[in-house]
C-alpha cells in the first residue's frame, strides 16, 4: 500500500523516452512521486524523446510560462521519403531520388529562418469543433487549417550525409518540427520526414539536467523529492520583490498594496524569509495579486 500523499510541489525535468506518450510519462512520474496534482509543459509525440518538464502541486500554477517558452530540438530528417504523418509512425506516401548536396541544403535553410507560416498537421492535438485533429485524420477526414505564424530563431545543420540530415532548431512555442521537415523536403524537391526528434531545451532548461524514469525507479521517495526544483524556477526571468509582513498579509488576502517603483508588469513576490509567494501585477503605483501559491506554503 502506498503511503498517504504529502504535498508535492516543484518541477521535475524528465528525459522522456521514445515509445510512450507525454501523458503516460507524466502519470508514471506522478505515481513515483506520490503526487496529487501534476501537469506537463508541452507535449512530445511518442516517437520523440527528450526534455519534458513536469510540474507538481503549486508549480502547476506557473506552468504556462514554460509552455509558452522557446524550445530547442535536434531533428533527424530522411530526405526522399514523405509519410502521412511527417514522422516514422505514418504510412509512406512517396519516394523520390535525392539529388541534393549538403551545400544545396545549407543554401536553402535561411528561407526557413525568422517568422514563417506553418499549416498545422492533421495528425496533431489541435481542436476542431471540440475534437483533436488526429481523430479526423484517422477517420480519413481532411479539415482545412489556417496557417499560423511561428518564429525559427536558429536553424543549424549539424550532420549531413544525404539522405540523412540532422538539424538543430530553436523556435517559438507551437512550432511543428514535423511540418518544418516536410516543408524543407518540399523546398528541396525531394520530400522529407522526421525519423527522430529530441527536445534538448525548453526555456532556460537543458536536457543535460533531466532525469529518466528508469533513474527515478531506482531512488527512494526522499531522493526522488530531492530532484524537484522549486516552483519559482518557472518564473525566474521576472523581476523579484521582497515584501514586508504587512504587505505579505495584504496580498495573500487578495488586497493590493502600494508599489512606488517604476517597474510595470509581473513581478515575483517573496517574504522577508525569502519564501516564494507567487506573482503580482505592478501597475500605476500598486501591486495587485495575480497568481499566488497556497497560503500555507508561504
User: What is the CATH-assigned architecture of the largest domain?
Assistant: 2-Layer Sandwich
Q: Given the helix and strand composition, which structural class is it?
A: alpha+beta
Provide the domain count: 3
Number of strands: 18
Largest sheet: 9 strands, mixed
Distance between the termini: 31 Å
Number of contiguous helices: 8
CATH superfamily of the largest domain: Pseudouridine synthase
What proportion of the residues form beta strands (DSSP E)?
Answer: 25-35%
Poorly predicted residue ranges:
none
CATH topology heading of the largest domain: Pseudouridine synthase
Radius of gyration: 22 Å
Helices and strands, in order, run as: EHEEHEEEHEEEHEEHEEHHEHEEEE
What is the residue-mean pLDDT, rounded to a whole number?
91
Q: Helical content, roughly?
A: 10-25%
* Morphology call: elongated
CATH class of the largest domain: Alpha Beta
Keywords:
298 residues; Archaeosine Trna-guanine Transglycosylase, Chain: A, domain 4; 5-stranded mixed β-sheet; 20% helix
Structure overview:
With 298 residues, this protein is α+β, with helices and mostly antiparallel strands. It has three domains: 10-69 and 205-233, Pseudouridine synthase (2-Layer Sandwich); 71-202, 2-Layer Sandwich (Pseudouridine synthase), CATH 3.30.2350.10; 238-297, PUA domain (Archaeosine Trna-guanine Transglycosylase, Chain: A, domain 4, Roll). The protein is 20% helix and 35% strand. The chain is built from eight helices and 18 strands. Strands 1, 2, 3, 4, 7, 10, 11, 12 and 13 form a nine-stranded mixed β-sheet that branches. The longest helix has 12 residues, at 22-33. The model has no long low-confidence stretch (mean pLDDT 91).
Amino acid at each position: 500500500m502506498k503511503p498517504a500523499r504529502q504535498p508535492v510541489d516543484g518541477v521535475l525535468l524528465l528525459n522522456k523516452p521514445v515509445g510512450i506518450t507525454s501523458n503516460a510519462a507524466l502519470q508514471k512520474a506522478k505515481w513515483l512521486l506520490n503526487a496529487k496534482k501534476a501537469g506537463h509543459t508541452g507535449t512530445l509525440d511518442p516517437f520523440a524523446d527528450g526534455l519534458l518538464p513536469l510540474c507538481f502541486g503549486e508549480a502547476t500554477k506557473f506552468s504556462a510560462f514554460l509552455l509558452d517558452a522557446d524550445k530547442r530540438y535536434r531533428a533527424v530528417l530522411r530526405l526522399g521519403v514523405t509519410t502521412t504523418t511527417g514522422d516514422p509512425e505514418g504510412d509512406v506516401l512517396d519516394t523520390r531520388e535525392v539529388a541534393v548536396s549538403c551545400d544545396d541544403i545549407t543554401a536553402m535553410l535561411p528561407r526557413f529562418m525568422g517568422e514563417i507560416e506553418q499549416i498545422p498537421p492533421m495528425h496533431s492535438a489541435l481542436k476542431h469543433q471540440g475534437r483533436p485533429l488526429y481523430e479526423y485524420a484517422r477517420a480519413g477526414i481532411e479539415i482545412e487549417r489556417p496557417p499560423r505564424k511561428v518564429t525559427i530563431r536558429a536553424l543549424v545543420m549539424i550532420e549531413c550525409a544525404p539522405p540523412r540530415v540532422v538539424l538543430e532548431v530553436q523556435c517559438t512555442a507551437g512550432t511543428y518540427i514535423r511540418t518544418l521537415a516536410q516543408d524543407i523536403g518540399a523546398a528541396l524537391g525531394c520530400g522529407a520526414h522526421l525519423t527522430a526528434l529530441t527536445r534538448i531545451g525548453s526555456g532556460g532548461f537543458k536536457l543535460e539536467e533531466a532525469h529518466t524514469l528508469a533513474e527515478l525507479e531506482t531512488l527512494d521517495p526522499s531522493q526522488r523529492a530531492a530532484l524537484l526544483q522549486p516552483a519559482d524556477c518557472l518564473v525566474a526571468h521576472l523581476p523579484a520583490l521582497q515584501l514586508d509582513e504587512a504587505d505579505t498579509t495584504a496580498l495573500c488576502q487578495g488586497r493590493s498594496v502600494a508599489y512606488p517603483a517604476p517597474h510595470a508588469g509581473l513581478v515575483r513576490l517573496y517574504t522577508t524569509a525569502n519564501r516564494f509567494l507567487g506573482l503580482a501585477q505592478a501597475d500605476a503605483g500598486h501591486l495587485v495579486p495575480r497568481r499566488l501559491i497556497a497560503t500555507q506554503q508561504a
